[in-house]
């Protein structure tokens, strides 16, 4: 992983390291219709032939996302950590697990990322653990301390108990709240009162996956400029876009329509101490591969200006501070880091990059989609 990134950095050549004034007079390439082909617009929503989206599934998923009766404590919903009105994240560095609120501690040990554009993601979670597909990802928190249908201790950390959570969800949806059964029948044509807990669990995930399709960041001002609208973004944002794909080398990891390579990189955010111990071993906890220690998933950057704080531990509150880390000695502190060929940037260059990131803010999601359901079963 690290060697591949270093080779890619070298391939950019010495020209990218110059301090010459940044030219933003980029023509639109007739072949792509874009000024910067490495950062294309967000595509149409996926078709999902195995789970065709319907309004009934969306409505059911919206209920499951917002029903506190389905949590272990009966007082937690998905929106506690993924608040719809704040870009589907909480805005705090570390959230409290189910059954610890309103206590401040214990907290979850990693920052809860935004769910924006999750429907496109081929990989998710900071270390990629337990990820198979979007429906499974959406229902998995019921088995974690986040929602804790497994009835684990609030200090359980990464521990999960999916079979226990499946059994508890089945009972909740069929016995405790029988009004859900006809909604599943309407959405999927299946009777969850006779289904296995595993099947009900899957159907719940499928419904929640259809609901989370509303959480899309697209049609940004940058997209308009990239397609040829000279007045869509500021000169600073234009310079930032050129820096992002050139001298700053951000595009090596943050590329494509979602500005992520969906790979795991060590960017010196969990540095070993004198004894070799890290606060968080990251991807290593999943793969057991030594080179993966301290590596975390590259986050998507669309609407990132609205999803502070940043990094796997929520330790940075501003985009500028994240960039400063990447291009300073702190970004090279880990012996396994992927950034040891990156160069410092001036404050003006950092400011321009921040303006570019801000220009990635997508069009607003309709308020009607963001509101909780008017009624629950």
**Gross CATH architecture of the largest domain:** Orthogonal Bundle
What's the gyration radius in Å?
22 Å
Question: What is the typical, i.e. mean, pLDDT?
Answer: 92
Strand fraction equals under 5%
Strand order of the largest sheet: 1-2
> Would you count the extended β strands for me?
2
Considering DSSP H and I runs of 4 or more, what fraction of the residues is helical? 25-40%
Q: What is the CATH topology descriptor of the largest domain?
A: Cytochrome Bc1 Complex, Chain D, domain 2
Instruction: Give me the strand/helix succession.
Output: HHHHHHHHEHEHHH
Can you tell me the CATH superfamily of the largest domain? Cytochrome c-like domain
How would you explain this protein's 3D organization?
By secondary structure, the protein is mainly alpha-helical. It has 2 domains: 169 residues, Orthogonal Bundle (Cytochrome Bc1 Complex, Chain D, domain 2), CATH 1.10.760; 166 residues, Cytochrome c-like domain (Cytochrome Bc1 Complex, Chain D, domain 2). The chain is 30% helix and 2% strand. A two-stranded antiparallel ribbon has the order 1-2. It is globular, with a radius of gyration of 22 Å.
